Amino acid sequence: MKECEYQQIRPGAAPPPPPSAPQSGSGPPPTPRRPSSGPDSAALASSAASVRPCRKWEVFPGRNRFYCGGRLMLAGHGSVFALTVVLIVTTTTLFFIFDCPFLARHLTLAIPIIGSMLFFFVMSCLLQTSFTDPGILPRATPNEAAALEKQIDSTGNSTYRPPPRTKEVMINGQMVKLKYCFTCKMFRPPRTSHCSVCDNCVERFDHHCPWVGNCVGKRNYRFFYAFILSLSFLTSFIFACVITHLTLRSQGGTFLDTLKETPASVLELVICFFSIWSILGLSGFHTYLVASNLTTNEDIKGSWSNKKNMEASTNPYSHKSVAANCCAVLCGPLPPRGTSIRWPHIFPRKERILQGTWTIPSRVFTACQSSSTY
Predict the structure, then answer these.
(1) Which of 5, 220, 263, 367 lies 20 to 30 A from 107 at CA?
(2) pLDDT: which is higher, 291 or 149
(3) Where is each Palmitoyltransferase DHHC domain found (predicted)?
C-alpha cells in the first residue's frame, strides 16, 4: 500500500488556501503552459523531486532518539542501557569461556546449550523492550488543542474560578478521573501518564526503566516481563553452574587455591550474587502485577487500594481471574505505533468506552493496520 505522508504546519500559521474554482462567465479557463525544455526547467524538476514531506518521527517533539529510518527508538539517555548490555554480555562470555568447557567435559553437554538458549532469549527480549514504541500517544494538533481549550473555558462558571482540568468516566462501575496534560494538550486516557524523562504521554504507563533505556508501557510491557523473567533464570543458572565448577575443581586441593586459579569465575560469582536478589524480587513483583492487572504506577500511588483513598476501591481493569488477567496483559492486541501515524489519518471522533476498556480518540489509533508504516 502506498505510504501516507504529511506536511508539517507550524502552530499559529494560517493554513494554505484551497485552489479556487474558475467563476462562471469570467471567460475561458487559462490554457496550461507547456513546460520549456531549457536548463531552468530541468533544475526545477530535479529540486521538486528531491523535496519530500517530513515524516512524523523526524519532527517528534519528545526526547527520544530514532534509528533505522524511525523503525527503532530509544530514550534520550543510553548510558545505563549500554551498561546493562555490557554486564549481561561480559558475564555470559566469561561463563562460556572459563566454566562451560570444564562442565561440559565432567558433567553434560547440555549446560552450554541451555546457557546459550537463555542468553539469546534474554538479549532478544531486552532489545525488543528498548527499541519498541512503549505506546506513545501523539500530541494534539494546534486546531485540536484550540478546540479543546475553548470547550474547557466554556465550562467555567465565574470569572475568578479556573475551568476544570479533569474529567470523570465510568469503567465497569468504577469512577475514573482523567487528567489534562498541559504538554500534550489533551485529556489523558485511563492508565495513561506523562513520562518526565521522555516527555511523552504513554498508554498504560508502568514506569520508566533506565536499565532498558525506555519507558515501559502497553506496547512493550510483555517484552519487559519476559526479559526480567528470563534474566532471573539466566542469572540463577550461571550462579549455580559457577558454584558447581568451583566445587568440583577444588576436590583435588583447597578452595582458596581454586579461587586464585579461576579469577574469572570469581568475578561471575560476585556479579551474579549481587544482581540475583534484585532480579528475582523484580520478577516476583511484576508477576503479582500481571496476575492482578495492575501497573507499577498504580501500585505505588495506591489507585485501587486504601493506600491513598479512605475507602478501598476495586480495580476496574481486573478480569477477576488470574489466567484472564495474564492473557489480557501478555497476549492482548497491540495498538499501532504512535510515532508512525501520519497526519492524514488524524481526525476527531467521539470518545467512548467499549467493553470496559477505554477507546482513545481516533486521531491516535485510527491509522489502518496495513498503512502503519514508518
Answers:
(1) 263
(2) 291
(3) 177-301
Backbone φ, ψ for residue 74 (5° rounding): -150, 155
Residue 352: per-residue pLDDT: 34
Residues paired with 316 in a beta bridge: none
Q: What angle do CA 202, 127, 219 make, to 5 degrees?
A: 30
Please write the tens of the pLDDT for every residue from 274-327. Answer: 899 999 999 999 999 999 999 998 888 877 775 455 455 788 888 888 999 999
CA-CA distance, 97 to 262, in Å (whole number)?
11
Of the candidates 109, 146, 161, 130, the one whose C-alpha atom is nearest the C-alpha of residue 67 is 130
User: Beta-strand (E) ranges in the chain?
Assistant: 65-67, 72-74, 166-171, 174-181, 186-187, 193-195, 200-202, 207-209, 214-216, 352-354, 357-359
Whether 209 is catalytic: yes
Average pLDDT for the chain? 75
Distance CA 53, CA 244 (A): 61
Catalytic residue among 209, 215, 241, 272: 209
pLDDT of residue 288: 94
Reduced to 3 states (helix: H, G, I; strand: E, B; else coil), residue 108 is: coil
Q: Which helix (H) or strand (E) holds 146?
A: helix 142-153
Domain locations along the chain: 56-141+192-371
Question: Looking at residues 1-6, what average pLDDT do you find?
Answer: 43
List the beta bridge partners of residue 216.
207
Q: Which of 246, 231, 230 is nearest to 99 (CA)?
A: 246
Q: How far apart are CA 120 and CA 226, in angstroms?
A: 12
> Cα separation of 73 and 301, whole Å?
28
138 alpha-carbon distance from chain centroid: 13
Report, as an integer, the average pLDDT of 116-137: 93
